[in-house]
Amino acid sequence: MKPIVNIENLHFKYDEAEILKAIDLNVPQGSFLSILGPNGSGKTTLLKNICNLLHPHKGSIMIEDKEVERIKYKNLARVIAVVHQGTDVQFDFAVYDVVMMGRFPYLKRFQTEGKEDERIVKKAMEDTSTWELRDKSISEISGGERQRVLIARALTQQPKVLILDEPISHLDIKYQIEILDLCKTLNKEHNITVITTLHDINMASRYSDYIVLLEKGNIRKMDTPERVLTEENIEEVYGIKVDLIRRNENERPIIIPK
Amino acid sequence: MIKKLYKTKILVLLIVLLFLILFSITLGAVKIPFIETVKIIISKIKFIGNRVNVETIKDSNIFIVMNIRLPRILMASLVGAILSVVGASYQAIFKNPMADPFVMGVSSGAAFGATLGIILGLNKGILGFGLTSVIAFAGALLTTFLVYNLARVGNKISTTAILLAGIVVSSLLSSGISLMMIFNKDELINIVSWTLGSFNGSSWTQLLVISIPATIGTIFLTTYSKELNAIVLGEDQAQNLGVNVELTKKIILVTASFLAACAVSVSGIIGFVGLIIPHLLRLVFGSDHRILLPVSVIGGSIFLLICDTLARTMLSGIEIPVGIITSLFGGPFFLYLLKRNRSKNLI
Ligand SMILES: Nc1ncnc2c1ncn2[C@@H]1O[C@H](COP(=O)(O)OP(=O)(O)OP(=O)(O)O)[C@@H](O)[C@H]1O
Ligand SMILES: [Mg+2]
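Above: the input entities. Below: the C-alpha coordinates describing the complete assembly.
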Protein backbone atom coordinates (compact mmCIF):
# COMPACT_ATOMS: atom_id res chain seq x y z
CA MET A 1 0.00 0.00 0.00
CA LYS A 2 1.11 3.53 -0.74
CA PRO A 3 2.34 5.46 2.31
CA ILE A 4 0.37 8.62 3.10
CA VAL A 5 2.87 9.72 5.72
CA ASN A 6 6.49 8.95 5.08
CA ILE A 7 9.16 9.85 7.61
CA GLU A 8 12.82 9.41 6.83
CA ASN A 9 15.71 9.75 9.23
CA LEU A 10 13.88 12.28 11.42
CA HIS A 11 15.89 13.93 14.18
CA PHE A 12 14.32 16.40 16.55
CA LYS A 13 15.48 18.36 19.58
CA TYR A 14 13.83 21.09 21.67
CA ASP A 15 17.19 22.38 22.88
CA GLU A 16 20.32 20.29 23.42
CA ALA A 17 19.19 16.69 23.89
CA GLU A 18 17.80 14.79 20.93
CA ILE A 19 14.22 13.74 21.67
CA LEU A 20 13.66 11.84 18.42
CA LYS A 21 16.55 9.94 16.87
CA ALA A 22 16.68 8.66 13.32
CA ILE A 23 12.99 7.89 13.03
CA ASP A 24 11.95 6.03 9.88
CA LEU A 25 8.24 5.46 9.58
CA ASN A 26 5.87 4.63 6.75
CA VAL A 27 2.19 4.94 7.45
CA PRO A 28 0.25 3.05 4.77
CA GLN A 29 -2.86 4.80 3.50
CA GLY A 30 -5.98 3.56 5.23
CA SER A 31 -4.22 1.95 8.15
CA PHE A 32 -4.85 2.27 11.88
CA LEU A 33 -1.56 2.92 13.59
CA SER A 34 -0.95 3.25 17.33
CA ILE A 35 2.15 4.68 18.92
CA LEU A 36 3.02 3.14 22.26
CA GLY A 37 5.85 3.98 24.62
CA PRO A 38 6.62 5.05 28.17
CA ASN A 39 6.05 8.62 29.40
CA GLY A 40 8.55 10.97 27.85
CA SER A 41 9.51 8.58 25.06
CA GLY A 42 8.58 11.19 22.44
CA LYS A 43 5.11 10.18 21.25
CA THR A 44 3.55 13.65 21.38
CA THR A 45 6.70 15.16 19.92
CA LEU A 46 6.50 12.78 16.98
CA LEU A 47 2.86 13.61 16.31
CA LYS A 48 3.58 17.33 16.45
CA ASN A 49 6.34 16.89 13.90
CA ILE A 50 3.96 15.09 11.58
CA CYS A 51 1.34 17.85 11.78
CA ASN A 52 3.89 20.62 11.29
CA LEU A 53 3.68 22.14 14.77
CA LEU A 54 7.32 21.25 15.35
CA HIS A 55 10.05 21.12 12.75
CA PRO A 56 12.74 18.43 12.56
CA HIS A 57 16.32 19.60 12.50
CA LYS A 58 17.25 16.72 10.24
CA GLY A 59 15.38 14.33 8.01
CA SER A 60 12.11 14.70 6.17
CA ILE A 61 8.40 14.24 6.62
CA MET A 62 6.38 13.72 3.48
CA ILE A 63 2.60 13.89 3.35
CA GLU A 64 1.30 12.46 0.08
CA ASP A 65 4.78 12.93 -1.39
CA LYS A 66 5.02 16.56 -0.39
CA GLU A 67 7.35 17.97 2.24
CA VAL A 68 5.06 18.88 5.14
CA GLU A 69 6.69 22.26 5.78
CA ARG A 70 6.02 23.33 2.21
CA ILE A 71 2.30 22.65 2.31
CA LYS A 72 0.13 25.72 2.91
CA TYR A 73 -1.56 25.67 6.31
CA LYS A 74 -5.05 25.51 4.89
CA ASN A 75 -4.12 22.78 2.44
CA LEU A 76 -2.49 20.73 5.17
CA ALA A 77 -5.63 21.13 7.29
CA ARG A 78 -7.64 19.56 4.50
CA VAL A 79 -5.44 16.47 4.61
CA ILE A 80 -4.58 16.11 8.30
CA ALA A 81 -6.94 16.75 11.21
CA VAL A 82 -5.61 16.65 14.73
CA VAL A 83 -7.39 16.01 18.01
CA HIS A 84 -5.12 17.42 20.66
CA GLN A 85 -4.87 16.27 24.21
CA GLY A 86 -7.70 17.75 26.28
CA THR A 87 -7.20 21.41 27.09
CA ASP A 88 -9.18 23.70 29.33
CA VAL A 89 -11.43 26.09 27.50
CA GLN A 90 -11.50 29.61 28.88
CA PHE A 91 -13.77 31.12 26.31
CA ASP A 92 -17.37 30.31 25.79
CA PHE A 93 -18.52 28.79 22.49
CA ALA A 94 -21.52 26.71 21.54
CA VAL A 95 -20.60 23.15 20.63
CA TYR A 96 -22.05 23.67 17.16
CA ASP A 97 -19.81 26.67 16.52
CA VAL A 98 -16.75 24.75 17.66
CA VAL A 99 -17.49 21.94 15.21
CA MET A 100 -18.13 24.50 12.46
CA MET A 101 -14.57 25.81 12.93
CA GLY A 102 -13.44 22.62 11.21
CA ARG A 103 -14.65 24.18 7.96
CA PHE A 104 -12.08 26.97 8.27
CA PRO A 105 -9.63 25.46 5.74
CA TYR A 106 -12.36 25.47 3.10
CA LEU A 107 -13.50 29.08 3.57
CA LYS A 108 -12.03 32.17 1.98
CA ARG A 109 -11.39 35.24 4.12
CA PHE A 110 -14.71 36.96 3.50
CA GLN A 111 -16.73 33.82 2.96
CA THR A 112 -19.29 32.65 5.49
CA GLU A 113 -20.42 29.09 5.97
CA GLY A 114 -23.09 27.89 3.59
CA LYS A 115 -25.65 25.12 3.35
CA GLU A 116 -23.04 22.57 2.32
CA ASP A 117 -20.91 23.34 5.40
CA GLU A 118 -23.97 23.04 7.61
CA ARG A 119 -24.76 19.66 6.10
CA ILE A 120 -21.21 18.42 6.69
CA VAL A 121 -21.26 19.64 10.28
CA LYS A 122 -24.59 17.95 10.97
CA LYS A 123 -23.35 14.69 9.49
CA ALA A 124 -20.13 14.78 11.51
CA MET A 125 -22.06 15.50 14.70
CA GLU A 126 -24.47 12.68 14.05
CA ASP A 127 -21.62 10.27 13.36
CA THR A 128 -20.07 11.15 16.70
CA SER A 129 -23.40 11.32 18.59
CA THR A 130 -22.84 14.96 19.49
CA TRP A 131 -25.78 16.49 17.64
CA GLU A 132 -27.81 16.62 20.88
CA LEU A 133 -25.04 18.71 22.44
CA ARG A 134 -25.06 21.36 19.72
CA ASP A 135 -26.50 24.22 21.78
CA LYS A 136 -24.51 23.54 24.94
CA SER A 137 -21.43 25.52 25.79
CA ILE A 138 -18.12 23.79 25.15
CA SER A 139 -17.10 24.61 28.72
CA GLU A 140 -20.14 22.85 30.18
CA ILE A 141 -19.80 19.34 28.77
CA SER A 142 -17.92 16.33 30.12
CA GLY A 143 -14.43 15.25 29.09
CA GLY A 144 -15.75 12.36 27.03
CA GLU A 145 -18.30 14.57 25.30
CA ARG A 146 -15.64 17.18 24.54
CA GLN A 147 -13.40 14.51 23.02
CA ARG A 148 -16.23 13.45 20.72
CA VAL A 149 -16.93 17.07 19.81
CA LEU A 150 -13.30 17.57 18.85
CA ILE A 151 -13.41 14.43 16.74
CA ALA A 152 -16.56 15.78 15.07
CA ARG A 153 -14.70 18.99 14.29
CA ALA A 154 -11.81 16.98 12.88
CA LEU A 155 -14.26 15.11 10.62
CA THR A 156 -15.63 18.34 9.16
CA GLN A 157 -12.13 18.99 7.86
CA GLN A 158 -12.77 15.93 5.67
CA PRO A 159 -9.24 14.73 6.30
CA LYS A 160 -7.40 11.77 4.87
CA VAL A 161 -5.42 11.39 8.08
CA LEU A 162 -6.78 11.68 11.61
CA ILE A 163 -4.18 12.21 14.30
CA LEU A 164 -5.12 11.78 17.96
CA ASP A 165 -2.98 12.26 21.05
CA GLU A 166 -4.12 10.03 23.89
CA PRO A 167 -7.77 10.29 22.93
CA ILE A 168 -9.01 7.98 25.68
CA SER A 169 -6.84 8.85 28.65
CA HIS A 170 -9.54 10.68 30.67
CA LEU A 171 -12.42 8.49 29.65
CA ASP A 172 -14.27 5.69 31.37
CA ILE A 173 -14.27 2.25 29.77
CA LYS A 174 -17.55 2.80 27.94
CA TYR A 175 -16.36 6.00 26.27
CA GLN A 176 -12.94 4.47 25.59
CA ILE A 177 -14.62 1.77 23.55
CA GLU A 178 -17.00 4.26 21.98
CA ILE A 179 -14.22 6.59 20.81
CA LEU A 180 -12.00 3.82 19.50
CA ASP A 181 -14.96 2.11 17.80
CA LEU A 182 -15.71 5.44 16.17
CA CYS A 183 -12.11 5.77 14.97
CA LYS A 184 -12.22 2.22 13.66
CA THR A 185 -15.44 2.90 11.77
CA LEU A 186 -14.00 6.05 10.23
CA ASN A 187 -10.92 4.06 9.35
CA LYS A 188 -12.75 1.16 7.72
CA GLU A 189 -15.74 2.91 6.18
CA HIS A 190 -14.31 6.27 5.21
CA ASN A 191 -10.80 5.01 4.57
CA ILE A 192 -9.33 7.62 6.93
CA THR A 193 -5.84 6.80 8.09
CA VAL A 194 -5.72 6.91 11.89
CA ILE A 195 -2.54 7.68 13.82
CA THR A 196 -3.00 7.72 17.57
CA THR A 197 -0.92 7.54 20.71
CA LEU A 198 -2.24 5.28 23.42
CA HIS A 199 -1.17 4.20 26.87
CA ASP A 200 -3.46 1.21 27.04
CA ILE A 201 -1.56 -1.63 25.40
CA ASN A 202 -4.59 -3.90 25.26
CA MET A 203 -6.68 -1.28 23.49
CA ALA A 204 -3.88 -0.72 21.02
CA SER A 205 -3.72 -4.45 20.43
CA ARG A 206 -7.44 -4.68 19.89
CA TYR A 207 -7.84 -1.81 17.42
CA SER A 208 -4.58 -1.30 15.53
CA ASP A 209 -3.35 -2.64 12.23
CA TYR A 210 0.14 -1.57 13.20
CA ILE A 211 1.85 -0.62 16.44
CA VAL A 212 4.93 1.52 16.81
CA LEU A 213 6.83 0.92 20.01
CA LEU A 214 8.80 4.02 20.93
CA GLU A 215 11.62 4.00 23.44
CA LYS A 216 13.62 7.11 24.35
CA GLY A 217 13.10 8.62 20.92
CA ASN A 218 13.93 5.46 18.98
CA ILE A 219 11.51 3.20 17.20
CA ARG A 220 12.02 -0.11 18.94
CA LYS A 221 9.54 -1.97 16.79
CA MET A 222 6.97 -1.25 14.09
CA ASP A 223 4.78 -4.13 13.01
CA THR A 224 1.45 -5.85 13.54
CA PRO A 225 0.18 -6.14 17.13
CA GLU A 226 0.99 -9.86 17.23
CA ARG A 227 4.61 -9.24 16.33
CA VAL A 228 5.17 -6.13 18.46
CA LEU A 229 3.44 -7.21 21.64
CA THR A 230 5.72 -9.92 22.91
CA GLU A 231 6.88 -10.55 26.47
CA GLU A 232 10.46 -9.62 25.47
CA ASN A 233 9.60 -6.35 23.71
CA ILE A 234 7.43 -5.12 26.54
CA GLU A 235 9.97 -5.99 29.17
CA GLU A 236 12.70 -4.24 27.22
CA VAL A 237 10.73 -1.02 26.72
CA TYR A 238 8.67 -0.75 29.89
CA GLY A 239 10.87 -2.81 32.22
CA ILE A 240 7.99 -4.95 33.49
CA LYS A 241 7.29 -8.65 33.15
CA VAL A 242 3.95 -9.59 31.56
CA ASP A 243 1.96 -12.64 30.55
CA LEU A 244 0.50 -12.76 27.07
CA ILE A 245 -2.93 -14.24 26.68
CA ARG A 246 -4.61 -15.25 23.44
CA ARG A 247 -7.88 -17.10 23.66
CA ASN A 248 -7.61 -18.31 20.06
CA GLU A 249 -5.62 -17.80 16.91
CA ASN A 250 -7.93 -15.10 15.50
CA GLU A 251 -7.87 -12.95 18.58
CA ARG A 252 -5.38 -10.23 19.37
CA PRO A 253 -3.02 -10.74 22.32
CA ILE A 254 -3.85 -9.30 25.74
CA ILE A 255 -1.20 -8.55 28.30
CA ILE A 256 -1.44 -8.99 32.05
CA PRO A 257 1.35 -7.76 34.31
CA LYS A 258 2.90 -10.56 36.33
CA MET B 1 -23.97 32.99 10.52
CA ILE B 2 -25.23 35.60 12.93
CA LYS B 3 -28.13 34.21 14.83
CA LYS B 4 -31.46 36.02 14.62
CA LEU B 5 -31.59 36.53 18.34
CA TYR B 6 -28.36 38.52 18.18
CA LYS B 7 -29.53 40.63 15.27
CA THR B 8 -32.31 42.15 17.37
CA LYS B 9 -29.98 42.68 20.31
CA ILE B 10 -27.48 44.43 18.05
CA LEU B 11 -30.24 46.59 16.61
CA VAL B 12 -31.37 47.54 20.11
CA LEU B 13 -27.80 48.52 21.03
CA LEU B 14 -27.54 50.69 17.91
CA ILE B 15 -30.79 52.48 18.69
CA VAL B 16 -29.67 53.06 22.27
CA LEU B 17 -26.41 54.55 21.00
CA LEU B 18 -28.19 56.87 18.57
CA PHE B 19 -30.62 58.03 21.22
CA LEU B 20 -27.83 58.60 23.75
CA ILE B 21 -25.88 60.67 21.24
CA LEU B 22 -28.89 62.94 20.66
CA PHE B 23 -29.88 63.04 24.31
CA SER B 24 -26.40 63.85 25.60
CA ILE B 25 -26.27 66.86 23.27
CA THR B 26 -29.16 68.40 25.19
CA LEU B 27 -27.24 68.21 28.46
CA GLY B 28 -24.73 70.75 29.67
CA ALA B 29 -24.47 74.22 31.15
CA VAL B 30 -26.94 75.41 28.50
CA LYS B 31 -29.94 73.10 28.26
CA ILE B 32 -31.09 72.65 24.69
CA PRO B 33 -34.44 70.93 24.08
CA PHE B 34 -34.33 67.52 22.43
CA ILE B 35 -36.48 68.56 19.44
CA GLU B 36 -34.32 71.60 18.85
CA THR B 37 -31.20 69.40 18.89
CA VAL B 38 -32.66 67.01 16.36
CA LYS B 39 -33.70 69.91 14.11
CA ILE B 40 -30.26 71.49 14.22
CA ILE B 41 -28.57 68.24 13.25
CA ILE B 42 -31.01 67.44 10.45
CA SER B 43 -30.62 70.95 9.06
CA LYS B 44 -26.91 70.25 8.52
CA ILE B 45 -27.48 67.07 6.54
CA LYS B 46 -27.20 67.49 2.78
CA PHE B 47 -30.34 67.30 0.60
CA ILE B 48 -32.85 66.96 3.42
CA GLY B 49 -31.36 69.79 5.46
CA ASN B 50 -33.41 72.61 3.94
CA ARG B 51 -36.66 70.90 4.87
CA VAL B 52 -36.40 71.86 8.54
CA ASN B 53 -36.75 75.39 9.73
CA VAL B 54 -34.09 76.48 12.18
CA GLU B 55 -34.72 80.24 11.96
CA THR B 56 -36.41 80.30 15.34
CA ILE B 57 -33.43 78.65 17.04
CA LYS B 58 -30.80 80.81 18.68
CA ASP B 59 -27.50 81.00 16.81
CA SER B 60 -25.61 80.36 20.02
CA ASN B 61 -27.47 77.07 20.48
CA ILE B 62 -26.63 76.04 16.94
CA PHE B 63 -23.01 76.87 17.63
CA ILE B 64 -22.97 74.90 20.88
CA VAL B 65 -24.53 71.85 19.28
CA MET B 66 -22.48 71.81 16.10
CA ASN B 67 -19.11 73.07 17.23
CA ILE B 68 -18.81 72.12 20.87
CA ARG B 69 -21.01 69.24 21.87
CA LEU B 70 -21.43 67.12 18.76
CA PRO B 71 -17.74 66.74 17.91
CA ARG B 72 -16.94 65.99 21.52
CA ILE B 73 -19.72 63.43 21.85
CA LEU B 74 -18.79 61.73 18.62
CA MET B 75 -15.14 61.70 19.68
CA ALA B 76 -15.99 60.07 23.01
CA SER B 77 -18.07 57.45 21.19
CA LEU B 78 -15.32 56.82 18.68
CA VAL B 79 -12.61 56.45 21.30
CA GLY B 80 -14.88 54.15 23.34
CA ALA B 81 -15.43 52.01 20.26
CA ILE B 82 -11.70 51.82 19.53
CA LEU B 83 -10.66 50.97 23.09
CA SER B 84 -13.31 48.31 23.37
CA VAL B 85 -12.62 46.57 20.07
CA VAL B 86 -8.89 46.72 20.71
CA GLY B 87 -9.43 45.21 24.15
CA ALA B 88 -11.48 42.36 22.68
CA SER B 89 -8.79 41.67 20.07
CA TYR B 90 -5.91 41.68 22.55
CA GLN B 91 -7.88 39.41 24.87
CA ALA B 92 -8.23 36.96 22.00
CA ILE B 93 -4.62 36.81 20.87
CA PHE B 94 -3.31 36.73 24.44
CA LYS B 95 -6.05 34.22 25.34
CA ASN B 96 -6.35 36.25 28.50
CA PRO B 97 -9.59 38.01 29.38
CA MET B 98 -7.61 40.43 31.56
CA ALA B 99 -5.63 41.94 28.69
CA ASP B 100 -6.53 45.58 27.96
CA PRO B 101 -5.65 48.07 25.22
CA PHE B 102 -2.69 49.24 27.25
CA VAL B 103 -0.89 45.90 27.72
CA MET B 104 1.66 46.73 25.09
CA GLY B 105 2.74 49.86 26.92
CA VAL B 106 0.69 52.17 24.69
CA SER B 107 -0.51 54.24 27.64
CA SER B 108 2.85 54.82 29.27
CA GLY B 109 4.44 55.54 25.90
CA ALA B 110 1.76 58.08 25.09
CA ALA B 111 1.95 59.63 28.56
CA PHE B 112 5.72 59.91 28.27
CA GLY B 113 5.38 61.61 24.89
CA ALA B 114 2.67 63.93 26.15
CA THR B 115 4.67 64.88 29.22
CA LEU B 116 7.66 65.66 27.05
CA GLY B 117 5.43 67.75 24.79
CA ILE B 118 3.92 69.67 27.69
CA ILE B 119 7.20 70.54 29.42
CA LEU B 120 8.73 71.60 26.12
CA GLY B 121 5.73 73.91 25.70
CA LEU B 122 4.70 72.37 22.39
CA ASN B 123 1.00 72.78 22.95
CA LYS B 124 0.46 74.68 19.74
CA GLY B 125 -1.76 73.29 17.07
CA ILE B 126 -1.29 71.73 13.70
CA LEU B 127 -4.31 70.34 11.88
CA GLY B 128 -6.40 70.89 14.98
CA PHE B 129 -4.04 68.76 17.00
CA GLY B 130 -1.83 69.94 19.79
CA LEU B 131 1.70 68.96 18.96
CA THR B 132 1.44 67.14 22.27
CA SER B 133 -0.99 64.68 20.69
CA VAL B 134 1.41 64.02 17.87
CA ILE B 135 4.29 63.32 20.25
CA ALA B 136 2.02 61.17 22.39
CA PHE B 137 1.09 59.16 19.31
CA ALA B 138 4.74 58.70 18.41
CA GLY B 139 5.52 57.70 21.99
CA ALA B 140 2.75 55.12 21.98
CA LEU B 141 3.91 53.55 18.74
CA LEU B 142 7.59 53.54 19.70
CA THR B 143 6.84 51.88 23.02
CA THR B 144 4.70 49.21 21.36
CA PHE B 145 7.50 48.56 18.90
CA LEU B 146 10.00 48.27 21.75
CA VAL B 147 7.81 45.91 23.80
CA TYR B 148 7.09 43.82 20.74
CA ASN B 149 10.75 43.40 19.91
CA LEU B 150 11.74 42.70 23.48
CA ALA B 151 9.17 39.90 23.63
CA ARG B 152 9.99 38.41 20.25
CA VAL B 153 12.11 35.28 20.17
CA GLY B 154 13.15 34.52 16.62
CA ASN B 155 9.95 34.58 14.66
CA LYS B 156 7.61 33.85 17.55
CA ILE B 157 5.97 36.10 20.08
CA SER B 158 5.25 34.73 23.50
CA THR B 159 2.26 36.00 25.42
CA THR B 160 3.95 35.91 28.81
CA ALA B 161 6.99 37.71 27.44
CA ILE B 162 4.81 40.48 26.01
CA LEU B 163 2.92 40.98 29.25
CA LEU B 164 6.16 41.08 31.24
CA ALA B 165 7.97 43.34 28.79
CA GLY B 166 4.90 45.60 28.75
CA ILE B 167 4.91 45.91 32.53
CA VAL B 168 8.64 46.57 32.81
CA VAL B 169 8.79 49.12 30.00
CA SER B 170 5.71 50.84 31.46
CA SER B 171 7.24 51.22 34.89
CA LEU B 172 10.48 52.51 33.37
CA LEU B 173 8.57 55.15 31.45
CA SER B 174 6.47 56.01 34.50
CA SER B 175 9.63 56.72 36.44
CA GLY B 176 10.76 58.94 33.59
CA ILE B 177 7.44 60.80 33.74
CA SER B 178 7.69 61.25 37.52
CA LEU B 179 11.19 62.61 37.11
CA MET B 180 10.06 65.13 34.51
CA MET B 181 7.18 66.17 36.75
CA ILE B 182 9.49 66.78 39.70
CA PHE B 183 11.64 69.10 37.65
CA ASN B 184 8.66 70.91 36.13
CA LYS B 185 6.32 71.50 39.03
CA ASP B 186 4.41 74.29 37.29
CA GLU B 187 3.24 71.94 34.54
CA LEU B 188 2.10 69.32 37.05
CA ILE B 189 -1.61 70.00 36.62
CA ASN B 190 -1.42 69.88 32.83
CA ILE B 191 0.46 66.61 32.85
CA VAL B 192 -1.84 64.96 35.36
CA SER B 193 -5.01 66.04 33.61
CA TRP B 194 -3.72 64.84 30.24
CA THR B 195 -2.96 61.50 31.85
CA LEU B 196 -6.44 61.18 33.28
CA GLY B 197 -8.06 61.63 29.92
CA SER B 198 -10.46 64.23 28.58
CA PHE B 199 -12.45 65.04 25.48
CA ASN B 200 -12.52 68.75 26.22
CA GLY B 201 -11.77 70.69 23.06
CA SER B 202 -12.35 67.90 20.55
CA SER B 203 -12.73 69.37 17.09
CA TRP B 204 -14.20 68.23 13.78
CA THR B 205 -10.74 68.09 12.21
CA GLN B 206 -9.46 65.90 14.99
CA LEU B 207 -12.48 63.69 14.66
CA LEU B 208 -12.00 63.36 10.93
CA VAL B 209 -8.30 62.59 11.17
CA ILE B 210 -8.88 59.86 13.77
CA SER B 211 -12.05 58.37 12.32
CA ILE B 212 -10.49 57.37 9.02
CA PRO B 213 -7.78 55.04 10.38
CA ALA B 214 -10.16 53.96 13.15
CA THR B 215 -12.81 52.80 10.71
CA ILE B 216 -10.39 51.06 8.39
CA GLY B 217 -8.54 49.43 11.29
CA THR B 218 -11.69 48.22 13.00
CA ILE B 219 -13.14 46.71 9.85
CA PHE B 220 -9.78 45.09 9.19
CA LEU B 221 -9.76 43.54 12.68
CA THR B 222 -13.23 42.10 12.19
CA THR B 223 -12.09 40.27 9.05
CA TYR B 224 -9.91 38.16 11.34
CA SER B 225 -12.83 36.98 13.49
CA LYS B 226 -12.70 33.38 12.31
CA GLU B 227 -8.98 33.17 13.04
CA LEU B 228 -9.48 34.69 16.49
CA ASN B 229 -12.20 32.17 17.29
CA ALA B 230 -9.85 29.33 16.47
CA ILE B 231 -6.93 30.89 18.35
CA VAL B 232 -8.77 31.34 21.66
CA LEU B 233 -9.43 27.59 21.69
CA GLY B 234 -5.69 26.92 21.50
CA GLU B 235 -2.89 27.96 19.16
CA ASP B 236 -1.84 24.44 18.19
CA GLN B 237 -5.41 23.50 17.40
CA ALA B 238 -5.84 26.70 15.41
CA GLN B 239 -2.80 25.97 13.29
CA ASN B 240 -4.06 22.46 12.61
CA LEU B 241 -7.30 24.04 11.41
CA GLY B 242 -5.26 25.93 8.86
CA VAL B 243 -4.79 29.25 10.67
CA ASN B 244 -1.42 30.92 10.28
CA VAL B 245 -1.27 31.66 13.99
CA GLU B 246 1.98 33.62 14.22
CA LEU B 247 1.09 35.84 11.27
CA THR B 248 -2.41 36.47 12.61
CA LYS B 249 -1.09 37.42 16.03
CA LYS B 250 1.36 39.87 14.50
CA ILE B 251 -1.25 41.47 12.26
CA ILE B 252 -3.69 41.86 15.14
CA LEU B 253 -1.01 43.19 17.48
CA VAL B 254 0.15 45.82 15.01
CA THR B 255 -3.35 46.92 13.96
CA ALA B 256 -4.75 47.00 17.48
CA SER B 257 -1.74 48.87 18.88
CA PHE B 258 -1.99 51.43 16.11
CA LEU B 259 -5.68 51.95 16.88
CA ALA B 260 -4.96 52.25 20.60
CA ALA B 261 -2.26 54.82 19.87
CA CYS B 262 -4.74 56.85 17.79
CA ALA B 263 -7.26 56.80 20.63
CA VAL B 264 -4.79 57.68 23.36
CA SER B 265 -3.23 60.54 21.42
CA VAL B 266 -6.55 62.43 21.29
CA SER B 267 -8.08 61.45 24.60
CA GLY B 268 -5.35 60.70 27.10
CA ILE B 269 -5.41 57.49 29.06
CA ILE B 270 -8.86 56.14 29.69
CA GLY B 271 -8.78 52.88 31.54
CA PHE B 272 -11.31 50.11 32.01
CA VAL B 273 -13.29 50.54 28.77
CA GLY B 274 -11.29 47.93 26.88
CA LEU B 275 -11.41 45.59 29.83
CA ILE B 276 -15.01 45.72 31.01
CA ILE B 277 -16.98 46.15 27.83
CA PRO B 278 -15.75 43.06 25.93
CA HIS B 279 -16.02 41.09 29.14
CA LEU B 280 -19.58 42.16 29.74
CA LEU B 281 -20.56 41.56 26.13
CA ARG B 282 -19.02 38.11 26.16
CA LEU B 283 -21.44 37.22 28.94
CA VAL B 284 -24.37 38.26 26.77
CA PHE B 285 -23.23 37.29 23.28
CA GLY B 286 -20.66 34.53 23.89
CA SER B 287 -17.11 34.50 22.58
CA ASP B 288 -17.74 34.33 18.83
CA HIS B 289 -15.68 37.23 17.52
CA ARG B 290 -17.87 37.63 14.46
CA ILE B 291 -20.45 38.97 16.89
CA LEU B 292 -18.22 40.08 19.76
CA LEU B 293 -16.12 42.54 17.76
CA PRO B 294 -19.02 44.48 16.21
CA VAL B 295 -20.96 44.65 19.47
CA SER B 296 -17.80 45.75 21.25
CA VAL B 297 -17.68 48.73 18.91
CA ILE B 298 -21.24 49.73 19.84
CA GLY B 299 -20.93 48.82 23.52
CA GLY B 300 -17.67 50.75 23.94
CA SER B 301 -19.25 53.82 22.32
CA ILE B 302 -22.24 53.72 24.63
CA PHE B 303 -20.16 53.25 27.76
CA LEU B 304 -17.66 56.01 27.10
CA LEU B 305 -20.35 58.38 25.88
CA ILE B 306 -22.22 57.96 29.17
CA CYS B 307 -19.01 58.38 31.18
CA ASP B 308 -18.01 61.53 29.29
CA THR B 309 -21.47 63.02 29.65
CA LEU B 310 -21.27 62.44 33.40
CA ALA B 311 -17.75 63.90 33.41
CA ARG B 312 -18.88 67.17 31.89
CA THR B 313 -22.27 67.57 33.55
CA MET B 314 -22.03 66.05 37.02
CA LEU B 315 -20.51 69.08 38.72
CA SER B 316 -21.40 72.50 37.43
CA GLY B 317 -18.49 74.70 36.51
CA ILE B 318 -15.87 72.01 36.83
CA GLU B 319 -15.15 69.06 34.60
CA ILE B 320 -14.04 65.73 36.01
CA PRO B 321 -11.44 63.88 33.93
CA VAL B 322 -13.30 61.08 32.18
CA GLY B 323 -10.65 58.50 33.13
CA ILE B 324 -11.67 58.97 36.75
CA ILE B 325 -15.30 58.30 35.92
CA THR B 326 -14.57 55.15 33.91
CA SER B 327 -12.59 53.60 36.74
CA LEU B 328 -14.91 54.92 39.46
CA PHE B 329 -17.91 53.26 37.84
CA GLY B 330 -16.16 50.56 35.85
CA GLY B 331 -14.04 49.19 38.67
CA PRO B 332 -16.75 48.18 41.13
CA PHE B 333 -18.99 46.98 38.31
CA PHE B 334 -16.20 44.81 37.02
CA LEU B 335 -15.56 43.33 40.46
CA TYR B 336 -19.26 42.58 40.78
CA LEU B 337 -19.27 40.73 37.46
CA LEU B 338 -16.15 38.82 38.39
CA LYS B 339 -17.62 37.68 41.66
CA ARG B 340 -20.96 36.78 40.15
CA ASN B 341 -19.58 34.79 37.27
CA ARG B 342 -16.74 32.97 38.93
CA SER B 343 -19.08 30.14 39.84
CA LYS B 344 -20.22 29.81 36.24
CA ASN B 345 -16.67 29.06 35.15
CA LEU B 346 -16.86 31.76 32.52
CA ILE B 347 -13.80 33.91 32.50
N1 LIG C 1 8.29 22.03 24.99
C1 LIG C 1 9.29 21.23 25.40
N2 LIG C 1 10.52 21.75 25.64
C2 LIG C 1 11.54 20.94 26.02
N3 LIG C 1 11.43 19.62 26.20
C3 LIG C 1 10.24 19.04 25.98
C4 LIG C 1 9.11 19.81 25.56
N4 LIG C 1 8.06 18.99 25.43
C5 LIG C 1 8.51 17.74 25.74
N5 LIG C 1 9.81 17.79 26.06
C6 LIG C 1 10.64 16.61 26.41
O1 LIG C 1 10.64 15.73 25.31
C7 LIG C 1 10.53 14.40 25.74
C8 LIG C 1 9.39 13.72 25.03
O2 LIG C 1 8.17 14.35 25.38
P1 LIG C 1 6.78 13.91 24.78
O3 LIG C 1 5.78 14.85 25.29
O4 LIG C 1 6.94 13.75 23.32
O5 LIG C 1 6.59 12.49 25.45
P2 LIG C 1 5.36 11.51 25.39
O6 LIG C 1 5.87 10.24 24.87
O7 LIG C 1 4.24 12.14 24.67
O8 LIG C 1 5.03 11.36 26.93
P3 LIG C 1 3.62 11.15 27.65
O9 LIG C 1 3.35 9.69 27.60
O10 LIG C 1 3.88 11.58 29.04
O11 LIG C 1 2.60 11.97 26.96
C9 LIG C 1 10.38 14.43 27.24
O12 LIG C 1 11.63 14.09 27.82
C10 LIG C 1 10.04 15.85 27.55
O13 LIG C 1 10.62 16.23 28.78
MG1 LIG D 1 2.26 12.83 25.20
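Note for the figure: The mean pLDDT of chain B is 86.
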